[in-house]
Amino acid sequence: MEARVIGGGIGGLAAAVGLTRTGWQVTVDERATALSDDGTGLGMWPQAVAALGQLGLADELRRRGAPQEPGSILRPDGRRLVTVDTERLRRRTGETVYVVPRPQLLTLLFEALPEGTVRFGRPGPDPLECDADVVVGADGAHSAVRTRLFGPTYALRPTGYTVWRGVAATGVEQAGEVWGPAAKFGYSPLRNGRTNFYAVLPTPTERRSPDVEWELLWHRFGRWAEPVPSVLRSADPARALRHSLTHLAPALPRYVTGRTALLGDAAHTMTPDLGQGACQALLDGLVLARCLANVSSRAEVPAALADYDRLRRRPTQRIAAASRWLGRLSVLRHGTGVRDAVVTAAGKLVE
């Protein structure tokens, strides 16, 4: 059986690894000319770590990543609103959250594939004309495969906010996310004394140079409680990534059309507020591979893809909706005092 994967990101590579190990012949077409080396830290939650464990890759993930220690949601003045207790998660699941740089996760999956599986510099075939037994649309948030299958109705919608991400050459003791009015700043420790960070503000009316935009960030966050100013001060503006925050709306009615399955951001682009985008893409790829593991003829493909759609569509769309809701809450323009009081009270209920 032959599978053609369009897109060599986290979900596409995960699907390729899973399918290859069950005997499928897999080709991955990646538009970029090489494996991506940009991106900041990604949180790998226990379910994703367990899925990698089924492929024998969990130990290597732990080696490349840093355990996420308990962190807090804070006010700009440093007052704690609620603690995010990863230790409780460890006790309940036997696993913790690991923060791993995106290039490291991509490399981990890429190295698990047979040589030549990924073909760089190729955009991939038309999914409706490809003769492979299965086509996997894993070509990201701006998915051409999704548009080909569902048209322009299902498209990315702006949230009105922009995120700046980067890695700072300074260390923090634990993770934190600071909520202000119409602004948010997050940070988490990486290995080697570095810090993954992100800053969220309303989208500027026009694009400016990195130095000018960094002045905007410093003006907004420079007087917040430590470690926010120290993290910003030790970051390189020229290496920061800037993205408008978007989400997919309306939600897709299905993830499967014919012999083509969508996964990851192509299927459910979500805001990063729950830190689940990479995890869900990884799980999509591995669940798809599991559903197709015992398929031995093209006639059996539709039922297997229907299983994948049943297992993944509703859970991922619920997570996407929850992430969007949390994102709106975290950057409220007005009523932040009420918000902070509610978040603090909710945190005490689960302590």
Write a structural description.
The chain is of the alpha/beta class. The chain has 2 domains: 208 residues, FAD/NAD(P)-binding domain (3-Layer(bba) Sandwich), CATH 3.50.50; 105 residues, D-Amino Acid Oxidase, Chain A, domain 2, CATH 3.30.9.30. A 7-stranded mixed β-sheet has the order 6-5-11-12-13-10-14. A 6-stranded mixed β-sheet has the order 8-2-1-9-16-15, sandwiched between helices. The longest helix has 30 residues.
Q: What's the Cα radius of gyration?
A: 20 Å
Question: Helix count, per DSSP?
Answer: 12
CATH level 1 name of the largest domain: Alpha Beta
Helix content: 25-40%
Order of helices and strands: EHEEHHEEEHEHEEHEEEEHHEEEHHHH
Q: In what range is the share of β-strand residues?
A: 15-25%
Overall 3D geometry? globular
Strand order of the largest sheet: 6-5-11-12-13-10-14
CATH superfamily of the largest domain: FAD/NAD(P)-binding domain
Derived structural class:
alpha/beta
Mean pLDDT: 93
What's the main sheet like? 7 strands, mixed
**Number of β-strand runs:** 16
CATH architecture of the largest domain: 3-Layer(bba) Sandwich
Might you state the CATH topology name of the largest domain?
FAD/NAD(P)-binding domain
End-to-end gap: 51 Å
What is the count of structural domains? 2
Low-pLDDT runs: none
